[in-house]
Protein: GIY-YIG domain-containing protein
Amino acid sequence: MIARKTKRYWVYILESLKDHRTYVGYTKDLEVRLTKHNSGQVKSTKHRRPLIILYKEMFQTKGEAKEKELWWKSRGGRQELKKLFY
Structure:
């Protein structure tokens, strides 16, 4: 029997230690993605480094992860983010 690698997708929220703004995204490899953000390889965050992970959540499908990412970017998600972290 061949072992199948479990697919996982992460929704994450980063906070800039420079300006305290947040960034929401999703990825298959959270460690690699955080490294890309902090090394300046991501256009939208390269001027806001360093960044730390405020929140992360794992999903089994890409669709679920994208749905949650969109929710965090919505008005309701932003309000929840403020309640939880600020």
Summary: The chain has one domain: 9-85. The chain has a mean pLDDT of 95. Helices lie at 30-38, 62-73, 75-85.
